[in-house]
Amino acid sequence: MLPSSLKDKWRRVPGKRYLVALLDFFLLALAVYLGYAVRLGIVIPRFVNDWLQVMLTLPAVCVGVFAAFGQYDTLWQHAGTEDYIKFLWLYLTSILAFLLINSLLKIAVFPRTSFVIAFFAGLFLCGGLRFSWLMAKPSHVRPKSERLKALIVGAGEAGAFLARDLMRNESDLYPAGFIDDDEQKSGRYISGLRVMGNTSELRGIVEREKIQVVLIAIPSANGKRIREIYNSLAPLKIQVRILPTLRELAGGQVSVSRLRRVKLEDLLGRDPVKISLDPSMNYIAGKRVLITGAGGSIGSEIVHQVLHNRPSEIIALGHGEQSIYLLMERLHVDIPVHAVIADVADEVAVNDVFTKFSPQVVFHAAAHKHVPLMEFCPREAMRVNDLGTRTVARCAGRYHAERMVMISTDKAVNPSSIMGATKRLAEKILEREQKNFPETKFMAVRFGNVLGSRGSVIPKFEKQIAAGGPVTVTHPDMKRYFMLIPEAVSLVIQAGALGHGGELFVLNMGEPVVIKEMAELLIRLCGYEPYRDINIVYSGIRPGEKLYEQLFYDENAVHGTLHPKIFVSNIKAGENEQNPELDTILEYALRHPDEALRLLKQLVPEFQQV
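^ thats the sequence. predicted structure below, dont judge the formating
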């Protein structure tokens, strides 16, 4: 009688998998027969019953163990080393299970020599069956003459998996060989393909072998390494495709379907920050979470990442109904997500949200962030970025939220723009509310520009390239810190786990990127040559902009955290005491727009407008 869990496994096995199980049973029965026949020559009458008992019991135990542990779910045409190791362990486990059952129930006499012969015969026959599927050449693979000749950069495990997948499956590519910097691999064969040389020889090999596509299969490579490879191939005008990073590949297979074209973020000279969200589970799981600015690029990503941590419900608050509508259209989850259209500076509306939902965790991403536009709208920048922050923070304190995390910016350090100054003032407001409501943990997260966010420079460059140019860069020496949206949001969520109240968290974003160089890379990625096909012109620094940004006021006041890429400082580090008349001045500025800029400078003395 099979246990219920094993019966459930069998119910999920389709007809074709029953056939595989039947083949295993037959081959294992044959192995038992060989064990007795080789040992005894013929089956002596007194062993006939034992032989029949073992020939039925041992295959039944093996097939049962295989089914229970998903052996028949494996696609052996795509099997790797791990699949064969798993098969070996399951085979050994099933043999041991049979021996245990036989010793307890005394099913049959199985001579030791016969057992050894049967063991190896079964391993050879069942293993050979699986290996035969791996070696079988699929009939639908197109001939090489109809496919593009590809060279794989990276002869490690990912490259080997990719080569096997290309050779076995329908694809527009066929692999000609490998490139790898490991000298011990040079001239050797991996997956039947030769390692032709190292990356310093890449361009010459591509030209000599008439390679049409280069595949970068180094998931652990940083942006600088990929950029070096890409730049060496740029003059040849050939296709370059890449496997995703280790983080993107996590939980998935290395296969042709995972290849994609090189994107700008692959070429940035900075290692992606890998932030574990496990610690955040304790403060998000089962909690009511409010996210302001939920329709924006940062806010919507916070919604998606928070959902992975299983909150009890999410309140997605945004001012633009279209962006919130699009967010809700993309969500298909069993966790309640409440859409709220409201202005964070509207105290009545925000108070109503807190009264109705009582959020326990708040992520405050709502803000005006466009630097040049805010130079002409100081009152509006203060209304949303400062009054909005104060309104949300006070409600978080009054309604006993456990913590609030605010999104800040590197432009808040020695601000030269109205946007940067209002975000610096928002940091000060948050620090003041921490004193007013010590039971709520308030913290801010400061980072640089985000690739792909609304209003970022990349979409602008792409439109200019599509129109035939020119691409406009403000200054040849302009530098900015860049990060990816998932990285930025991971930092925000991690800050909520690390903070105890009153902290300012900053990501170590490596070296800043020269905007001119980024524009050149983007032009090449679109298939053009800078200054020849698409020109780059300099438009001059816009109001409020600086050539480069800073991350801290005082680097001596910065400390490490449990995460090596996250640093922490006190929000008021390097600053004088808060202005006791902050509220009065802020409210006066909002009532008198002509006075807003002067009063902002009074509240943020370090603000030096350019």
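The longest helix spans residues 15-40.
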